Amino acid sequence: MNINNLYNFKNPVRHFLNIGDVRLHTNVEDVEIRDLTWTQPIQFRVRKDESEYRRLKMPNILNFLCALNRFKDSTNFFEFEEIDIRKRLIPNTETGDFATGVYDVQLESDFEKLCVYD
What is the pTM of this model? Predict the structure, then answer.
């Protein structure tokens, strides 16, 4: 499991900020969830081109790592397609990107269903 790909998923900043190398003053295994203060994500802008920006939201690193530590051993934690069947893309946690071709497969399935119902 690549923690950086989970935290910075699909964000360009993942090439500059490696969460796996962040040194914390505490061990996340020793932190109780009830002891954390939940915060809003930090927002910042990344330039897309000359005149457009993309707004990224980054969660609190300590909160993210503690939550990941608590839930990573759940039986269906990485079964993303089970979370919401309406989603069209399936994330790849190894590359920090979306699996290629998944959208096309679902689109083809939609066309087949339209033909049946037509």
Answer: 0.60
